[in-house]
Amino acid sequence: MPIRRFHVPLSLVADPPTSTVSDTELGQALVAGAVWAQAETWNRFAPIVFGMAARALGSEAEAEDVVQEVFYRLLVKAKSLRSPESLRSFVVSFAIRILKWELRKKRTRSWLSFNQPVMLVDIACEALDFESRDLLQKFYAFLARQAPRERLVLSLRYLESMTVEEIAKSMELSESTVKRSLECARKELLRWIETDLGPIGHFEGRRESNGT
Amino acid sequence: MEPDRGERIDPPVLATLTTLAHQNVRPATPEQLRRGWSVVSARFAARQVRQRSLVRLSVAATAFAALVFLALGPLSRYWSQAHPPVSVAMAYEVHGGTVVDGGYLRESGSKGVKLIFAEGSEFLLLPGTRGRLGAVYNNGARIAIEQGAASFQVTPRAHANWLVDVGPFLVTVKGTVFTVSWDAATERFELRLQHGQVSVTGPVAGGAIPLRAGQRLVVNLPKEEITITEQKPEEAWTSSPPTGTGVTTADLPTNDQPSRGFAGQGTAESSVAVMPRTSAKRAWADAAAAGDWDQILADVDRIGAKRSLAEASSEELFALADAARYRGRTALARDALLAERMRYPGTARALDAVFLLGRLEESNLGGIRRAMSRYDEYLTRAPNGTYASEALGRKMIATSRLEGASLAKPVAEEYLLRFPSGTYAGAARALLKTP
To answer: What is the crossing angle of helices B368-381 and B388-403, to 10°?
Structure first.
């Protein structure tokens, strides 16, 4: 059987070295649907999103699910990225939106459930002492009682050190709304510290002030 | 963490809590990242496959829908022809009699039988008249007069279907007022038209005879006389037989002289003034419209048939053919139709001439085969022409006569398929029932 030869010049095109690619180039490639860009976006931003989700939720297992959901939706909506240079904020916005949705889902589930859900906090760091672990457990129990928006604002402000402007932009809220939510959450936090953590709070505050 | 503008200083325990939260969360391990990416990429790939399948499915569905849409057109046409919609028959009342088995109208008094239909049409069978109500449709009815006289007042309506069988004649009615009579003993047919238009078909020379308001048609079959005379419309109505007088067909009053000879002879009042040839020819169209066939034929006799056929316009040739047909001058009618065909080929009248030539041939002894070829030619050249239904029906009758019912059955089936409610539908069904 004769072999048909096509006289089309072929050339081997290698993917660019991904580590040297800027966020803008990565964003452009992602919009264009390049497969390497999808993997690189994951490699570059998944750890950031994982950390953020784990701190906000207090659970690594839940954080893993959230990260997968964030990046799946990100890949689906990649073509809607208007400015490739703001890929990082696009990813963070996506992550915060999914986190908010996840927190709402958890809260709704707790309302519909006859039994109060058990607060499972992954206390992973072996270096923490017993008191610190207990404090952390109580802190996440307090966060779980807050409304999703207040909880998220509190997490982004104190755990992620984001400014009010950044939070407002990421959550697509006005700054005044963020400030109002933050103030409300802060009051609740202080009340909780005063009532539930009185001696510990005093002790921890003294420990902080002594630099120990 | 720098405090935002206007934000109060947080208690130290809050800083402790944030530090603990940060310490608690370890960075994602390579194993976690690898596992996560495999899940995400697999989900994304599955979604792309689903999307491609959906696109293919929607393209296939669109193509299928288009094919179904294209196929439904001819199918629905075929279905509507094969299965005509079941129509609800029009309601009617019977006064002065009853409708018994077979649609026979039995008179119970001495004032005749009156049928009043829901849409306003009225039929009155004069005393002593024998008739049948053949069928009632949603848009008309078919009634047969076997002996006697009847008057009809049909309400004009679009798509009306009123048919009157009078002895061997069939009167196709639009919105009109007329009186009709048939004497089976003397085989005399008479129709007086007050308003509207009717056409009469039957054992007369070639094709349907159209009648206008104010015309009177008398056909004497034994003598082969066809007489069309003019009378004032109001006379036509007032001179119709009054109800309850017991008059018979032959006694129907007329305002004209009795009809005379069959070939080219008009009524006594039909007089033709000698006029220049051109103006006489110009008057043929008017004479045809008025039903004054004798004037046309007199002109032709005066000018000469050969010259008339050579010089007449298409419209004049048709008027001449009509006049000759109605007066029984079949040879002249054939020559006029042939001249129409030869001199004005490609016109609608030339096509109509083909069918009318067939009708003329059919009336001649031994001309049925030639008539069939004319009908075939007409149906080939004008399958949806004015006379398509008539041509197919006549072809069916001619085939049945010439070659037997078995060979005519396919023609009958074709007729019923194309014209399920046509004039020859009854004949076609009867033919199909024959063993």
So the answer is: 150
